[in-house]
Design a protein that fits this description.
about 190 residues, alpha/beta, about 25% strand, globular, two-stranded antiparallel sheet, about 30% helix
Length: about 190
């Protein structure tokens, strides 16, 4: 997924990292947060080329919801369950606009539909909700990486802006001629 402080404007899959590199090249203040799992050769090459702008994300269990940025290694750790829940809450509260038509977001919505929450109890009797999946969830988790990254570059303040030429209408956000700048909670 790709987005900025105004919300998400692209969701899709790619065979390589060329689209991510194109965004990094075209937008010098952009950052990329990429899944640590799988083949990390190409992401590490992007880290070398765009130092301080490409981070590999690892999911950890943490008592803190805030991401832990490790600048020197280009890594970020975040609690998967807490990050997913924060994002679900923000979508529920209509804090994150999706730009484009409904057809642009069908696969994205399908990936989110494969996530569900279960209450689990550990050996000490502590209960907590765990997000699980029953199908492809790559685009949903890509949203988590976007959200981790946006928390790094945006201060969390919301505002109304006047629509400009080229800004697509948002889904579900009619504000009388103004587009809501996404209003994020701090992790």
């Amino acid at each position: 997924v790709a987005g900025n402080e105004y919300g998400l404007f692209y969701a899709g899959e790619a065979n390589d990292y060329a689209p991510i590199e194109a965004i990094l090249r075209q937008h010098p203040t952009s950052i990329a947060v990429i899944d640590q799992g799988g083949d990390i050769t190409a992401p590490r090459a992007l880290q070398e080329k765009y130092q301080g702008r490409v981070y590999l994300c690892t999911f950890v269990q943490s008592s803190d919801v805030a991401p832990k940025w490790r600048e020197l290694s280009g890594m970020v750790n975040v609690d998967r369950n807490k990050a997913i829940q924060l994002l679900v809450d923000e979508f529920t509260e209509k804090r994150i606009p999706l730009f484009g038509g409904e057809a642009n977001w069908e696969q994205y919505v399908e990936h989110w539909s494969h996530l569900y929450r279960e209450l689990e109890e550990d050996e000490r009797g502590r209960r907590r909700y765990i997000w699980k999946r029953n199908g492809a969830d790559h685009l949903a988790l890509a949203s988590v990486y976007w959200r981790v990254g946006i928390d790094r570059v945006v201060e969390g303040a919301g505002e109304l802006i006047t629509p400009q030429e080229g800004i697509f209408p948002t889904l579900g956000m009619e504000l009388g001629g103004a587009i809501a700048k996404a209003h994020f909670k701090r992790f």
